[in-house]
Design goal:
- This protein is 40% helix and 16% strand.
- By secondary structure, it is an alpha+beta fold.
- It has two domains: 200 residues, no CATH class; 146 residues, no CATH class.
- The strands form five sheets. The chain has a five-stranded mixed sheet. It has a two-stranded antiparallel sheet with strand order 1-2.
- Strand 8 and strand 9 form a beta hairpin.
- Helix 1 packs across helix 2, helix 2 crosses helix 6 and helix 4 crosses helix 6.
């Protein structure tokens, strides 16, 4: 061990398993060069460790079929196999990483819609799920400790119980004030994002990842944010007012259970939706346009999802003051509002007046928050 380095405890499991890592962390690749090789926009802010991790993961997945030629011993030592894959792997980003890639306004210091990226959200095909998991477990040994991924016994049990529909690994999300790495968990989803509503990502996974800049695409990005909804007893009204969050109440209470209020997107999700609508016009889906007709087609088949999306978009329109509080300029607000209105004209109406939850109530709020960063 280099005299200047030392081992620190990264994670400890209840059963006594301890994961240690040397600090300072190292990187044997240049994320800025990877950004260029992937032909991604140069406005992407690489100050965030999760963004660097995301780029290295995507880049390694693209070259997965050749990695055994460069790292035969590493791969054998990490996963007990001679190679990771015979072909490239297709992994796509959603959540904060996807917005950082597509939206310049989420990367600019001082922008109303810039925010911290806390972790990485990945999705792949069910067929490639186990292979993507194996790739991630090798990243730290191949490219430096900054990209370390590992699994605890609890993660292995969690993944086994999902039968290939979801995989859980651990990774380093940040460096704390004392220079020590902070580990978090990351779920690799397969084929669909199933939160309050279900979003099918198979069409995007079936095409070259470059087409959507290695993300789930602008339409699905917007839908993942606008799917958030939950209800609470009316007793939380005072707390919402005290925290300045009363704007999140959705306008369906005239017919919903009068003992409850319905809550929509969190502020961070409002920021992401507004950033996308500010940076991208509504069109046919070309040249970084949001394909409004495709969104309408998806929602036409799912009236419950459509109701939630419309309510969240309407909530944005009803809260100009919130956007100003974020720091948005009048010109930016006008652009965002005009595009929200355009989407609402395209998306079919939602006249249904349900008095009970029409969304999936089995997914925990903690789990949803994890995927909405």
């Amino acid at each position: 061990m280099n005299p200047k380095t030392r081992k620190v405890r990264l994670c400890e499991e209840l059963g006594g398993t301890i994961i240690e890592i040397e600090v300072p962390l190292v990187s044997r690749v240049d994320p800025a060069e990877i950004l260029k090789e992937l032909n991604l926009p140069d406005y992407i802010n690489l100050d965030y460790l999760p963004m660097k991790r995301a780029l290295v993961s995507i880049w390694a997945a693209k070259h997965a079929g050749q990695l055994h030629l460069e790292f035969p011993n590493v791969i054998k030592g990490c996963i007990g196999k001679s190679k990771i894959s015979n072909e490239s792997l297709n992994i796509l980003l959603f959540g904060g990483g996807a917005f950082k890639i597509h939206c310049p306004s989420t990367n600019v210091e001082g922008s109303a819609f810039n925010r911290v990226m806390k972790d990485v959200d990945l999705i792949c095909s069910k067929k490639q799920g186990a292979t993507v998991k194996n790739l991630l477990l090798c990243l730290g040994e191949m490219y430096g400790s900054m990209y370390t991924h590992f699994m605890l016994l609890s993660d292995k049990v969690f993944s086994a119980m999902r039968r290939g529909e979801r995989w859980r690994v651990r990774a380093i999300d940040s460096i704390d004030g004392e220079g020590l790495p902070v580990a978090g968990y990351m779920d690799i989803l397969t084929e669909e994002i199933n939160m309050r509503h279900k979003i099918d990502v198979r069409p995007e996974l079936s095409q070259p990842p470059e087409k959507t800049l290695y993300t789930i695409g602008l339409e699905n990005m917007l839908l993942t944010k606008c799917q958030f909804i939950e209800d609470h007893p009316r007793s939380v009204l005072e707390q919402l007012e005290q925290e300045g969050l009363k704007h999140r109440i959705l306008s369906c209470n005239s017919h919903y259970d009068h003992n409850k209020i319905v809550i929509g997107m969190e502020d961070k999700d409002i920021k992401d939706v507004c950033a996308e609508l500010l940076d991208h016009p509504i069109g046919e889906g070309g040249n970084e346009e949001i394909n409004g007709k495709r969104i309408a087609k998806i929602l036409e088949k799912d009236k419950k999802f459509r109701k939630t999306v419309r309510l969240n978009l309407e909530m944005i329109l009803n809260n100009e003051g919130v956007l100003k509080k974020f720091g948005a300029k009048n010109k930016e607000i006008n652009t965002i509002f005009s595009r929200v209105e355009e989407l609402l004209r395209i998306i079919p109406e939602s006249p249904e007046k349900w008095s009970k939850p029409w969304w999936n109530t089995e997914v925990s709020n903690v789990e949803i928050a994890k995927f909405e960063d």
